[in-house]
């Protein structure tokens, strides 16, 4: 009985560790995706400004 209790306890500890690692990996993936999206948005906006498609405050003197 004690051995089974120890096995179940260890299994629960492993599951808890796995959940924590999964959460951390998910958070990192979300942060990386947000950075990619921000970089794409910045590239799109700066690309339009540099080609003159949209007026910017820098072009008006």
TrEMBL record:
This is Uncharacterized protein. It comes from Lupinus luteus.
